[in-house]
Amino acid sequence: MRATLIGRFLLLAVLCLMVLLPLWYWAAPWLAALPIWVAGTVMKLIFPWVDGFEQRGVMAVLNTLVQVRMKGPQGDVFGELVPEVSYPTYGYGLVLLWAMLIASHPRRWWLKGLIGSLLLVPAQAWCICFQWLRDVVVLSGPSGAAYLKYPSWANEVVVYGYQFGFLMLTPVAPILLWLMFDKRFVAALWLEAALADKPEPAREKARMH
Fold it and tell me: Comparing C-alpha atoms, which of 131, 161, 175, 158 is closest to residue 35?
């Protein structure tokens, strides 16, 4: 039986993922630098309780002035909240984009991969920002809420932004970019699917013409 276009694409994409994932994980500390810088800069510009940010390997660390209750050796003490975010949690879309581009191999796929990598940075920064916000606004407990004095609806906005980034933006953004970069291949997939749904005589007639 002849291998279908979608079958070959999926097989090549999976093989590319297997090769690229170890390379991506090795390079993650360098790939994380730009989205962490964007996320940290935005947070520092918007929120007065942000004291700064830093990168520790693949971890994005936000230094805040938010006081939270913590357990100390001699009882509870107040300390400043320092949430951390792991870049690989939101950065895997980069590998997915490159794997799909290599598998479908459009014209100048390498240039489209570089452009797509830059376009994914805002999405990754969004996810980092909202996980920081979730940890500060939602998970900091009563002491954090007393310090921030935010209205209750702010928690819902932060949770929605976090879930949108984690569940939708991270996995869907690279697929949307691939669809935009390789419209010809996508059209060929739709045509093959349409022909596959036709009855056998119709397909034979189409081949004769």
Answer: 131
Angle, alpha carbons 110-182-179 (nearest 5°): 115
DSSP state of 58: T
For 176-200, b/e burial (b = at least 16 CB within 10 A) is: ebbeebbeebeeebeeeeeeeeeee
Farthest-apart Cα atoms in the chain, separation: 86
CA–CA distance, 10 with 20 (Å, rounded to integer): 15
In which residue are the tokens 């045509």 written?
191
Tell me the pLDDT tens digit for each residue of 153-185.
Answer: 999 999 999 999 999 999 999 999 999 998 888
State the Cα–Cα distance between residues 147 and 49, nearest whole angstrom: 10
* Region 140-160 average pLDDT: 90
The model's pTM? 0.86
Q: Which residue has the tokens 């191999």?
A: 105
